[in-house]
Q: What sequence folds into this?
């Protein structure tokens, strides 16, 4: 029997499946985008979720501890090996006002994560822009304006390092109550878009 192709989905609360309308509530596994991707790909693939609320690309959060993606990714790459694909979808938490980062800074953080993956291909996914009302949650003050510049910067990084790329901001997305977590329709849209890019033999 052929070995299943193993895909690691490395992300934040949207990969974890946070509801945009009820704090702390998580969508079921088969609703979250990694679960949707598993359903689409079928039994020949094994899709692993590694989503953590609040996770950043490479930054230590002075308020919430243990959120630095760069510090945990090497351990995950080892514990889940052999891997056939790593999907990196981070950057939304980097938009928080307390980090004072530019879109380029955030993209460079994502670049560092991509470069950590040396044994299999990477799909870099740029998170979609937040909604304009995301600032109603104080930590996201200014996030909307900065988020609009992420797609271009992430695309540049992907071209430089030679990995596959998806700008999730190009997909249709409904506004949500908090402005930065996704509704169930977007989880489906994202999984379908990722499926079109995956070309594992």
A:
């Amino acid at each position: 029997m052929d070995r299943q192709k193993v895909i690691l989905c490395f992300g934040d609360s949207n990969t974890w499946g946070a509801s945009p309308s009820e704090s702390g509530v998580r969508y079921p596994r088969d609703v979250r985008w990694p679960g949707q991707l598993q359903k689409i790909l079928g039994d020949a693939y094994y899709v692993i979720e590694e989503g953590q609320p609040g996770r950043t690309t490479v930054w230590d959060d002075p308020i919430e501890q243990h959120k630095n993606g760069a510090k945990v990714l090497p351990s995950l790459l080892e514990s889940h090996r052999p891997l056939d694909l790593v999907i990196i979808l981070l950057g939304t938490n980097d938009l928080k006002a307390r980090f004072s980062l530019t879109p380029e800074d955030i993209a460079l953080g994502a670049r560092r994560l991509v470069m950590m993956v040396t044994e299999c291909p990477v799909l870099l996914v740029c998170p979609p822009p937040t909604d304009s009302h995301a600032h109603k949650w104080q930590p996201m003050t200014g996030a909307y304006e900065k988020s609009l510049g992420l797609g271009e910067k992430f695309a540049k990084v992907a071209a430089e390092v030679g990995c596959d790329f998806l700008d999730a901001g190009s997909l249709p997305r409904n506004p949500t109550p908090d402005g930065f977590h996704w509704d169930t329709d977007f989880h489906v849209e994202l999984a379908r878009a990722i499926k079109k890019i995956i070309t594992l033999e």
Observations:
- The longest strand covers residues 5-11.
- The two ends are 15 Å apart (CA to CA).
